[in-house]
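Changelog excerpt

This revision adds worked examples to the README so contributors can see how folded entries look when concatenated. The first example is reproduced verbatim below.
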Amino acid sequence: MKILFLGDIVGSAGRKAVLERVPALREAWGLDFVVVNGENATNGMGLSGDHAKELLTAGVDCLTLGDHSFDQKDMMQFCETETRIIRPINFAKTAPGRGVRIFEDRRGRRILVAQVLGQVFMKRAYDDPFSALDQVFMTHKLGGAIQAALVDVHCEATSEKMAIGHFLDGRASMVVGTHTHVCTGDAQILPAGTGYLTDAGMCGDYNSVIGMDKAEPLRRFVTGMAKGRFQPAKGEATLSGFYVETDDRTGLATRVRQIREGGRLEQSVP
């Protein structure tokens, strides 16, 4: 199975890049399944129902969220009816929506998608991500009822993302980090066969401070004072993400590659 995961969409520039490029990438690369983290897609804070609909119509199979899951209040109700949206499994026991779901690709192969929030350096004390994921993978085995499994690890600390990757090695097809908006260069297949990347980066304008127009973040760092709200940068966006090919029999990764498509960080396609 050929799976593409794209990192956090930031604002209108990121949305535009995904809407314009994903349909062509699906065809050119023969993609079977596309997952995109959309939690900063609406003005840099959360994801609205209308923007979710646009992305799903453009050829995205699943949207994951994060710690800003419900910054756009209509998502509280929208994610209850739109089953292609996944919020963190350990967000809160009373949170609407779902943190894990099994999808089917166009050939009927089953792929599990789950998302989890980290605990280190995060603003809230979320439930233990390791026990939450352990429960999922104790009942959903690769090579059995599912042919692939993708986990979006939404964390601040690289060490916590790496620990979760090794914790799931051999149990998930791919583990990919999100949240920091800065792509890492450590795409690899772990010893037991799981494709891993510490952070997929963002789908946004990299002439920015993690996707935001530079002026206000620089002012706050230099002076310690705020003058206005952060606004997403609106230059040409780079699609950043993780491409993984899996073995249908075992569900494990056979090929992995970091993706940077268009914009300032463009590199060659897989």
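The second example, added in the same revision:
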Amino acid sequence: MQLPQGFHSKEENVVCKLNKSLYGLKQASRQWNAKFCYVVKQLGFKQSKADYSLFTKRLGGSFIALVVYVDDILIASNNVQEVEALKVSLDQHFKLKDLGGLKYFLGLEIARSAKGISLCQRKYALEILKDAGMSACRPSKVPMEQNLRLSKLQGTLLPDPGVYRRLVGRLIYLTITRPDIAYPVHKLSQFMSKPRKPYLDTAYKILQYIKGCPGQGIFLSASSDFHLKAYTDADWATCIDTRRSTIGYCIFLGDSLISWKFKKQSIVSRSSTEAEYRAMAVTVYELTWLLSLLKDLEIWHPQPALLFCDNQAAIYIGENPVFHERTKHIEVDCHVVRDKVQDNVIRLFFTPTHTQLADLLTKALNSSQLRHLLSKMNVMNIHVSASLPKGECTLLDDDRLITKKTAADASNRPDSHLEGECQSLN
């Protein structure tokens, strides 16, 4: 070890004792998290076992929830005085910057009213369009053409694969509030090692769809009940290279969409029933985690969660513990569905294909199917006037969304009165 410049010592073999972690070291983030957790726990907070970034505190009739992402903090409570006291206590240990009511956090735009909370990434979506040179492109009604099958050997290799990788990486972050593009984006993410021209053309198709309604996002209704409902689906042997199936699920708390996932299975399923059953198992894992998270938030959920599937055979396998003949080749951990059904944690129901909301996450749909499922998921664009049908909008040259009436009406957007009530700190 060499002594710092300007430091002189007559002693040999001396070392420097580090009293505080330096910013930029690989240990700094770990030390910061440990320090923050210690301080918050000293203030009486309890760290969640389901999500270690969540801290909760119950004090009489007041409840405080604190969420931390690196050095960005969100505070939500039913007691304003307790929030102010917490900010004072945290400011004594850390240098805080109070950003006031929650309106923008990690690229997410939050708008709140008496009807509920809206989450979107409009600013981020417009930046993606601008950086890709697609601000003036023609909007598309769908993010991906139906029956499009991409292969790892299809088309010519891109001369600069970095363009494709950066674009897909940014689109992946956009799926946080856009389940409508989750399927095509994650489909493209499977070809990051050797991107080809058809993949880039498909990515540009997604940008054309985003151009149509960049402010589309999730609406969390304030009138929803606290009952978990899930839809699960699988598209059997959809990958033409590996013949692996695509699974997807979407989970609702009441009428509000809170979790969704699209994934290609790690093994080859021998039948569509097996693929559906494995999709049900993955959904049960997520439901189990969400039940633990609701418990940490002190939300009582006595009734079993509802799981909807459009495959009758998969439901029979989940409900019948002696149905061995067609399931003996399936791994034991997939039979967690049976265990949860017997413990009355979940209940299985059949849903027809035309009402299967998880279809949005497993296959490309036409524009009418896409609009129908998005309306059922409470995915909407608050920047569009309520008099217009959902998703029907026009984009001007200055990137302002207006209705089909007049440009003057654009100033009366329905989000002008929305105000965030959560506190954000940095």
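Reviewer comment on example two: DSSP finds ten helices and 18 strands in the chain. Residues 224-351 form a domain with the Nucleotidyltransferase; domain 5 fold (CATH 3.30.420.10).
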